[in-house]
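Can you give me the bound-state structure? Components:
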Amino acid sequence: MTTRTGRVTCDLTISADGYSAGLNQSEQRPFGDDGGDGWGDKLHAWMFETAEENRAELEQLAGAGAFIMGRNMFGPVRGEWDRPWNGWWGDNPPYHTSVFVLTHHAREPQPMDGDTTFYFVTDGIESALAQAQAAAGDGDVAIQGGATTVNQYLAAGLIDELRLHIVPLTLGAGTRLFEGVPPLNLEQVNSRAATSVTHVTYRVH
Amino acid sequence: MTTRTGRVTCDLTISADGYSAGLNQSEQRPFGDDGGDGWGDKLHAWMFETAEENRAELEQLAGAGAFIMGRNMFGPVRGEWDRPWNGWWGDNPPYHTSVFVLTHHAREPQPMDGDTTFYFVTDGIESALAQAQAAAGDGDVAIQGGATTVNQYLAAGLIDELRLHIVPLTLGAGTRLFEGVPPLNLEQVNSRAATSVTHVTYRVH
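Here's the bound-state model for the whole set.
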C-alpha cells in the first residue's frame, strides 16, 4: 500500500443554518427554494458577483485532480437515464478532469469538451473514491456535493478537509450539511471573511 | 411612541452544525453532550482558554443594558421553583444589570451581588422584551439564549443583530439555532477569525 499525497477535500456553500440547497429542487431551480429567483443565485452569488475578492477560494475549489458528486448534483434526471443529460454546465464543464457521479443506474462514461469526463459509479462511495484517487494521481479528490453525498463521506470518515462558504441567509429547510453525521472533532485551519461570505476551512479528525 | 436607540442583539456560541447545546443537559453538564467533560468546556473554550484574542467579542457580549434568557439557561430546575436556585453563576453573576428570565412559574425578583437582578417573566417573550427595554434605557437588550429562546425571538422578527461564535466541532444533536425559524434575509456586517472560533455578525432584515 502506497501513501497518497493527495487529500480528500470538500468545498460546500451553505446558508447560515447549514443548508446547501432548499426544498423543491428542479431543472429550473437546481438549488431549490433558496430565496433567489432561480439557479441558486442567492446561495452562490459570492462565486459570481464578488468573484474577484474570492479568487483564492475559487481557485482552490477548481484545483482538485478529480471530483465526486451525487446524482442530484449532476442533474435532475431520476431513475434510469431515459433522456439525454450531461450535467448543468454545458458542453465545456468547469472541471477539466475526471468527475465521478454516484448513481444506482449504470451508464457509459461521457466525455465532454475541455478534458472533463463524467464516469458513473454504481458500487458505492468507497469505490468512487478509489477510482477518483487513481484518476487524481498525487492530486486532491474533491467531494463536490450535494450535502447528502458530503454527509455520507463525512460519516464514513473519508474527508480530510472541509471548506465551508457560509452565506448570509437562512433557508429553514432543504438538504443540510452534517445531518445524520455523528459528532466530529474539527480543527479550524483557516477562516477568512469576504464582503458577503465567510470562508472557514476545517481539518476533520 | 418614542424611537429607541438601543438594539436587540444576540450572541450565541454554536457548533459548526448549529447547536448551542448537546443532548442530555443537566446540572452537572449545562451544555449537555458537547464532547467535553462538563461545563460546556468545548463549546465555550474560546471564552476562557483564548480570552485575550477574543477580548473585543467578550466585551461586546457583556455590554448590553439588559439581558433576556430562557428558563433552561437560567438553571436546571423545571416546573415550580421548589428548591433554591439563583443561576449558574454564583453570588456575583457576570451581568451586572437586569436579567429577565422567561418562565411559566411566577417568582419574586432575585437581587444578586454586583447589581445583577433576576426578574421572572411569565407572560411571554414580547413582555420580557418590553420590560428589558425599559430597564436598558438607551442600551441594547441582549437575548442571551439558549437557542430555543433565540429561535422564538428570531421567528417573531424581534432580533436586530445576531453575533455567532462558530466553534470547530459538531454535536450532531441537541438544541439547534434557526430550527423552526422561517427563512431569514441576513446581512453580514462583520466576520473575524480567531484561532479556534469564527465570529460572524449578521444584521437581521
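A couple of observations. The domain at 8-204 of chain B is CATH 3.40.430.10 (Dihydrofolate Reductase, subunit A). The first strand of chain B starts at residue 8 and ends at 15.
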